[in-house]
Specification:
single chain, alpha/beta, 2 domains, 13 helices, 16 strands, 37% helix, 24% strand
Length: 390
């Protein structure tokens, strides 16, 4: 493995500014802030946070690679699922939450065009100003004749829409709360400053956290050991509920790495799932390079299902990414993209393996569908039904 290259002067300056901002927040709070607050500031502080400042985050040369960046096959299959929904509604729009580089929007719109099933509008809601700019440039370059259908919005639409809401790797970026469970009770793990650096520090958990963790502790068959550490996302249910209220008729499609709750909180997963991404490397220290690295946690898909049900949506499907893509004919998409070009087909086959193999993205990533006022089955969820695991 090649040694990590040092930070550039611009990167050093930026992370020092973010550190100063976090230092000030901790001092203002009396020397301690929750990890949820730390993660929120590190990722979303205006002009400073990872998703709010101008870092090259996605794809080649970025910090991590998502399924749309791996292959056009992903977007082609998602488009097939969108087409089913749009045809069932006799039309509608698509709203993508957190559109990354714009790659998924381009691939979905391109494939829907060939299917004769374009949406009335393709809306994008993204908190990152630099990613929005990158999306605009890429869509104008790659898909100029459909660019007028794409619109950027600053908040969830006030008027509910008919169509599809897409969220690929959005939930894992919601700030999480960290806890430690022990014989003496539940503690909240937060952040303090020690010798000029950030460090973990525990405080007695507030009643709402203790109650939430007690419910989580009941999920696995075996009990947690003393000192069990993990996380949960207090914002997931209310935020996902707001997303559900945006939909009048149609489907919400969630794609992310995660697990059903009984598997998420197994006793052997005693350090949780918190992970950071920097320059295509997975790191465990959330205090390194604040503002320059992504901070994520796996998604509790039981909580996602609960949020949908609480918002009066139907839980229409839950499966692995591999079975979602297979159900939508990824093999057919390969033949359509490659034509008679054997070299292209070989490249697509390698990409398909990365998207589908259990050791790559195939099982770690899951797909979930909520529907409202939609009667027919969704093809991406007919080959495997994991709803019983939730």
């Amino acid at each position: 493995m090649r040694p990590e290259s040092p930070l550039t002067p611009a990167e050093r300056l930026h992370t020092e500014r973010v550190r100063a901002h976090l230092d000030a927040a901790i001092a203002a709070a009396g020397g301690w802030i929750s990890f949820e607050r730390y993660m929120d500031l590190a990722l979303y502080a205006p002009g400073l946070g990872y998703y709010s400042a101008g870092a090259h985050k996605l794809g080649m040369g970025g910090d991590f690679t998502t399924a749309p960046e791996v292959s056009r096959l992903f977007g082609g299959c998602v488009a097939q699922q969108c087409a089913e929904v749009l045809r069932g509604l006799s039309g509608g729009s698509i709203l993508e939450l957190g559109a990354g580089t714009g790659r998924l929007a381009i691939d979905v719109l391109s494939r829907l065009d060939t299917l004769g099933c374009l949406p009335a509008h393709y809306l994008i809601l993204d908190v990152s100003a630099d990613l929005r700019d990158r999306q605009r440039r890429m869509i104008l370059e790659k898909l100029p004749r459909l660019a007028e259908r794409v619109m950027w919005i600053d908040a969830l639409p006030a008027a509910p829409l008919d169509g599809v809401i897409l969220a690929n790797e959005v939930l894992d970026a919601l700030p999480v709360a960290r806890f430690r469970w022990g014989a003496a009770g539940c503690e909240e793990l937060g952040v303090t400053v020690v010798n000029g650096g950030f460090a973990w520090a525990a405080q007695p958990a507030p009643p709402d956290m203790t109650a939430a963790c007690s419910r989580l502790a009941d999920a696995p068959v075996e009990r947690w050991d003393d000192g069990y550490v993990s996380e949960y996302c207090p914002r997931l249910v209310p935020w996902a509920g707001e997303v559900a209220r945006t939909l009048r008729r149609g489907a919400v499609l969630w794609f992310d790495y995660g697990l059903p709750r009984p598997q998420y909180y197994l006793p052997e997963r005693h350090e949780g799932t918190l992970l950071c991404h920097f320059r295509q490397r997975a790191l465990e220290d959330p205090f390194a390079n604040p503002g320059l690295q992504d901070i994520t946690a796996w998604v509790d898909f039981t909580a996602v299902a609960e949020a949908g049900c609480a918002a009066d949506c139907d839980l229409a499907g839950f499966t692995t990414q591999a079975f979602f893509l297979a159900g939508l004919g990824i093999d057919r998409e390969m033949h359509l993209l490659a034509g008679e070009d054997e070299n292209c087909f070989a490249r697509l086959a390698n990409q398909a393996r990365q998207l589908m193999l259990p050791g790559a993205m195939g099982e770690r990533f899951k797909a979930m569908a909520w529907t409202r006022a939609l009667d027919h089955e969704l093809s991406g969820f007919v080959m495997q039904d994991l709803r019983h695991t939730l």
